[in-house]
Amino acid sequence: MPIDIRQIIRDHQGRNYDLLREHVNPQFARVLRTIGFDRCYVRAEGAYLWDIEGRKYLDMLGGYAVFNFGRNHPDIRRAIIDALEADLPSWVQMEAPLLAGALAAELKKRIPYPLERVFFTNSGTEGIEAAIKFARCATGRPGIVHCEKGFHGLTLGALSLNGCESFRSGFEPFLPHCRQIPFDNLTALEAALSNRDVAAFIVEPIQGKGVNIPADGYLAEAMGLCREYGTLLVVDEVQTGVGRTGKFLATQWDEGCEPDMVVLSKALSGGYVPVGAVLLRRSIFDRVYSSMDRAIVHSSTFHEGAPAMAAALASLAALDDTDAMNNAIRIGAMIRDGVQAMIPRFEFLHAVRQRGLMIGIQFGKPRSLGLRTAWSLINRMDENLFPQAVTMPLLDRHRILTQVAGHRTNVVKLIPPLIISEDDAKWFLDAFEQVMADVHKFPGPVWGVLKDLGAMAVTHRARSETAPVKA
Ligand SMILES: Cc1ncc(COP(=O)(O)O)c(C=O)c1O
């Protein structure tokens, strides 16, 4: 009997969290339950999700910036089905996969830099691993410079470049010769490069954790320093690429910058099949793949798979066909202006940072005494707690899915599909205004919930600190 996926779905629907708890990740199940995110989503289309009770949600998390074209995009799905129905010979290995060549050519058309070779991966972190290896091999140098608060993935090489202790802790030792510098700081960059032992400076054009946007010209000047000291500039566009900021690459906002490598992933998948790509200069490629002996010196079994290549080709076509990038600029500005206009009224609301549909809403210490007391109380319990006072009611009362952007940032991030409408933006702005009004009532129900969450976090920390660790 062939497997009946629909029957499996029917048999298990509604038991999502029992299964997660029992077989996959009980800690994550606990987190989702604690913050009230334990919903069973059963359907998705465009920028919307529906739960098992038929309630509609606006998805402003977008699978961590995967769904630039919305969920279940019919043209992308069609392209993958066509590839499957063509009975293509995927992973023959000792041949030239046709769709990989076609996709590489299409990617190069969209990238305004002389990057002539494309290496395909299955994820963002694999792209970073490849970039580290390529840079070391091409320069013969060991060092990698990266930024505080940076995020490049969680495999060991990429984790060695991670600027957040909460991800790193427990996984030491890391790759040697990695040096961390402050983001958007050219003096620190020059100091780090000046020994001429650095293979690459790996940097996000906009940092995902916190949505930190550097000063105009930062990337171009960083490139100048890299050239001066013989270091390669690698831009990690895993989150910012494929139209997210209103240009194909966020690096393009900095006109004078020409990186040596660009790493893409996430939205290239069309939300269907994981895929990533590293675009690199021919001179780098030639140093790595320097002879027939080394023709596959860096590779992986599953790269260049036909469904992934079809998904990526269809994603690029979707970007061409829709007004997604202009829409990202227009709707992004509308949300930014709407939130900005609320700043004078709401003390916790400090700033909004935005480029296209990558938006960070920054919260911080309020001015008035009562609210300052509430802020200190909550932050003493847990420094990551306050933004939950925003994301939780946004989901629970207004059916909008958002995320907290990193540890200790006090930032709520919006990375919705690029196709969201003006009505969706209004849905968010009305909801956000109500949530802000409630957060500014102290004492009030929001603070009761936060206090309970904080108490839970404190108890949990105390328990794990005293629990014996099994050898
Ligand atoms: C900027 C950036 N680089 C790399 C990665 C890692 O990508 P992946 O999760 O596909 O390994 C991410 C993931 O969030 C990211 O945001």
Topology:
Layout: H1 5-12, H2 16-24, H3 26-34, E1 41-45, E2 48-51, E3 56-59, H4 62-65, H5 74-85, H6 98-110, E4 117-121, H7 124-139, E5 143-147, H8 156-159, H9 165-168, E6 178-181, H10 186-193, E7 198-203, H11 218-229, E8 232-236, E9 261-264, E10 276-280, H12 282-288, H13 306-321, H14 324-342, E11 349-355, E12 358-363, H15 369-381, H16 388-396, E13 400-401, E14 403-404, E15 411-414, H17 422-439, H18 445-466
Parallel strand pairs: 3-13, 5-6, 5-7, 7-8, 8-9
Antiparallel strand pairs: 1-2, 2-3, 4-10, 9-10, 11-12, 12-15, 14-15
Helix pairs in contact: 2-3, 5-13, 6-13, 7-12, 10-11, 14-17, 15-18, 16-17
This protein binds pyridoxal-5'-phosphate.
Labels describing this entry:
single chain; 471 residues; alpha/beta; Aspartate Aminotransferase, domain 1; Aspartate Aminotransferase, domain 2; 2 domains; seven-stranded mixed β-sheet; four-stranded mixed β-sheet; 18 helices; binds pyridoxal-5'-phosphate
* Overall tally of structural domains: 2
Strand order of the largest sheet: 4-10-9-8-7-5-6
- Range of strand content: 5-15%
> Major beta sheet, specifics?
7 strands, mixed
Spell out which ligands are present: pyridoxal-5'-phosphate
Structural class label? alpha/beta
CATH topology of the largest domain, what is it called? Aspartate Aminotransferase, domain 2
The CATH homologous superfamily name of the largest domain equals Type I PLP-dependent aspartate aminotransferase-like (Major domain)
